[in-house]
Amino acid sequence: MVTSRRKFIKISALGLGGLATTSAALNMFESNPILDKAVKETVAKRLSRSATYCEVCFWKCAAWIYKDEHNDIKKIIGNEQDSHCNGRLCPRGTGGIGMYSDEDRLKTPLIRTTINGEETYREASWDEALNLIASKFKDIKANYGSEAFALLKHGSPGSHLEHLFKAYGSDTIAEPAYAQCRGPRETGFGLTFGSWIGSPEPTDIRDTKCLVLIGSHLGENMHNSQVQEMSDAIDNDATLITVDPRYSTAASKSKHWLPIKPATDIALLLSWMHVLIEEDLYNKNYVEKYATGFEELKKHVKPYTPEWAYGITTIKPEDIRKTARIMAAAAPSVIIHPGRHVVWYGDDSQRSRAVAILNGLLGSWGNRGGFYFKEKISIPKYPHPHYPEPKWGWHDLGTQYPYAEMGLTTAIVDATLQADKSKYPIKAWMVAGTNLINTLPQREKTIEAINKLDFLVVVDTMPMEITGYADVVLPECTYLERYDGIRSAPNRTPSIAVRIPAVKPKYNSKPAWWISKQIAERLGLGAYFNYDDFEEVIAWQLNKLGTSLEEMKKIGVKNFPRQSGPLYLEVEQDYEFNTPSGKIELYSKELANYGFDPIPVYVPHPEPPQGFYRLNYGRSPMHTFSRTINNPYLNNLKSENTLWVNPKVARILNLKKDQEVWLKNQDDIISTFSIKVRITERIRWDSVYMYHGFGHNNKKLSRAFGKGMSDTDLISSTVIDPLMGGTGLRGNFVSILKENPHKTKEI
Ligand SMILES: Nc1nc2c(c(=O)[nH]1)N[C@H]1C(S)=C(S)[C@@H](COP(=O)(O)OP(=O)(O)OC[C@H]3O[C@@H](n4cnc5c(=O)[nH]c(N)nc54)[C@H](O)[C@@H]3O)O[C@H]1N2
Ligand SMILES: Nc1nc2c(c(=O)[nH]1)N[C@H]1C(S)=C(S)[C@@H](COP(=O)(O)OP(=O)(O)OC[C@H]3O[C@@H](n4cnc5c(=O)[nH]c(N)nc54)[C@H](O)[C@@H]3O)O[C@H]1N2
Ligand code: SF4
Ligand SMILES: [Mo]
């Protein structure tokens, strides 16, 4: 129901920080007041539209870009036929227009140069920049082998450049969406159900009776259709249980909020399993038919009573029992959400596995209101010669983590640091669509690795921090000005969506497909890019899929019927899971063979020392990471983050609302900028909280520079997941400084 969904967004936004941002945010979920005004002013004029999918985050909602007869983009709205957005974009998607209009954009290629002894950038032609890059590709190959050139990427530009790198002979490739984001949950669920979760998550939220969110703050984490479904589920009286040390938006909509002591989730999960098994509430038929290892699990969780968990988690035993019973009553229409950003404390694959096992006990996998069987269209490969076989690549880095199934960004950093003594010497990076300086933990290490490189080229749309370290900066045009690969994502019904340029690239910017092709041609690899325009590739693929570019330009999204069978298990259906045993593995022999715990175990983590608070962070509903902070429309909605501090702490430290403070962490690292205090009961007294993405330190970002604080400044300590190499980021502690430490230093 549209009305109540609107209401939900309104209420949730209200909780977020005052009316000023709220009313605009509310309006923006469906329409943007600033853009609406522009549209009204041109009401007499006809607007034409072209299809795209959003690049402001990775939910990839399909949308229409409206422009007037002067080719001015006026508005972006969701495509009604798209299951990722159901015709409505989130505030960030609506504000995506600001990515295009931002006057701070990168405008032309830049080459590092020294003038009067000072390093600076000079503007260059594409030809000069591309020739220089091609010569470096050749040098690296001749001196160290192609494998020594690494690609660090995120988002759409990545796939074009990945093709270039593979043609060149390197699959030394990684993205932060694995080791700094989803990796552990894919391992945890993969080990249990034999299937990755993937994106979008196959959570059947719209039909669920009980949704359990553990450190997953849907509503601030604005993944579009997921938030819409949660709102529908609330309308349908589903029970929400939120486990979060912070009173999140989701917590404010929940029947049960469990303000867990940070870093203790595995204890709660084990105790929930204990209650389900001891009280005979688990889904017996399902477990008997589909699971293996039940007896071992039963024995394992026997000691983990709610009373035991209370001492660890601070969640009252009666609340643990009550919520376990609610889950069991809803089963199998219950979801213990797998989360998305799950790199917390280093034992994250095991925590994710505990979440998976709990879902297994309740029978939610393959059942309505639990997890559905997803399906996607496979896009035909445009023909090209075989890739050469690299001698080594991402597989060989981080081999100590047996479940690392994608490249680890941090292993690339390490291999770069050890290039002189390693058989895998990394000597050059291309970075595209990721602001590594704010994205990777242990910034000093990232910068040290960059300093060791022979060559760094950055492809970006904005003068983000990472561009300041490049030898060559290439300006990519925004998603509104280019073709990209066809979107095909797993969902209830498979669909495809296209991205068609609405306008010509502004300034002297170019799309990543063109950049890749230009470099390839200079390297004699033109055969891999056998087309003049990427449009030809898409047209060819669409024909193979039984549609055409003409049709897709008109409809933007095409939904296909399911081919793989029903969304859910049939009653008593035989089903083989893609695990070694063919069953849901409550106990994993494979893990035992590797010397890991076959069933998750709770291990205590370090606590904040005296005078320190745990640094907690999360998503701002108005922004995506660091990429949108300078966006004129979104910056207008939220220009800086605040530090959430419990009133008790404020009293002890005598902090006032809006007072500016600096933070110093356990390694004596001090934040670059200050942050304003927000005193609120919504955060526990043992932690402080801030939105990630703020505190930019590149002056070229005129709106974002120096506004708020960067959580990454203070994440100098990580605990690595021994299974898959993810970097646990939540083990950092900060003390609050009331005097400007930078000023003091200068005196
Ligand atoms: N401290 C801390 N670190 C984190 C997180 C956190 O919460 N806190 N979150 C983690 C998670 S979950 C993730 S997924 C990662 C995200 O990591 P990133 O994807 O690196 O995040 P962004 O800061 O958005 O950086 C995106 C970069 O891509 C550029 N860009 C945007 N659009 C385009 C485009 O169309 N073309 C090109 N070429 N460039 C473009 C932007 O200008 C920006 O420089 O960060 C992880 N790291
Ligand atoms: N608006 C917006 N939405 C986004 C994004 C964005 O940049 N902006 N990014 C997208 C991406 S790539 C990702 S990965 C997701 C990330 O979104 P989520 O997976 O939802 O995760 P986080 O932002 O890491 O979650 C932060 C929540 O975890 C809680 N938390 C902290 N420590 C603990 C703990 O020890 N135990 C428990 N139970 N909870 C804890 C925090 O208080 C906070 O509420 O968001 C996606 N959606
Ligand atoms: S959720 Fe929002 S930002 Fe992400 S793709 Fe959809 S509209 Fe864009
Ligand atoms: Mo992420």
UniProtKB/TrEMBL annotation:
<keyword id="KW-0732">Signal</keyword>
<keyword id="KW-0411">Iron-sulfur</keyword>
<keyword id="KW-0500">Molybdenum</keyword>
<keyword id="KW-0560">Oxidoreductase</keyword>
<comment type="similarity">
    <text>Belongs to the prokaryotic molybdopterin-containing oxidoreductase family.</text>
</comment>
<dbReference type="GO" id="GO:0043546">
    <property type="term" value="F:molybdopterin cofactor binding"/>
</dbReference>
<keyword id="KW-0479">Metal-binding</keyword>
<feature type="domain" description="4Fe-4S Mo/W bis-MGD-type">
    <location>
        <begin position="47"/>
        <end position="102"/>
    </location>
</feature>
<dbReference type="Pfam" id="PF01568">
    <property type="entry name" value="Molydop_binding"/>
</dbReference>
<keyword id="KW-0408">Iron</keyword>
<dbReference type="InterPro" id="IPR006656">
    <property type="entry name" value="Mopterin_OxRdtase"/>
</dbReference>
<keyword id="KW-0004">4Fe-4S</keyword>
<dbReference type="InterPro" id="IPR006963">
    <property type="entry name" value="Mopterin_OxRdtase_4Fe-4S_dom"/>
</dbReference>
<protein>
    <submittedName>
        <fullName>Nitrate reductase</fullName>
    </submittedName>
</protein>
<feature type="signal peptide">
    <location>
        <begin position="1"/>
        <end position="25"/>
    </location>
</feature>
<dbReference type="InterPro" id="IPR009010">
    <property type="entry name" value="Asp_de-COase-like_dom_sf"/>
</dbReference>
<dbReference type="GO" id="GO:0046872">
    <property type="term" value="F:metal ion binding"/>
</dbReference>
<dbReference type="InterPro" id="IPR006657">
    <property type="entry name" value="MoPterin_dinucl-bd_dom"/>
</dbReference>
<dbReference type="InterPro" id="IPR050612">
    <property type="entry name" value="Prok_Mopterin_Oxidored"/>
</dbReference>
<dbReference type="GO" id="GO:0016491">
    <property type="term" value="F:oxidoreductase activity"/>
</dbReference>
<dbReference type="Pfam" id="PF00384">
    <property type="entry name" value="Molybdopterin"/>
</dbReference>
<dbReference type="GO" id="GO:0051539">
    <property type="term" value="F:4 iron, 4 sulfur cluster binding"/>
</dbReference>
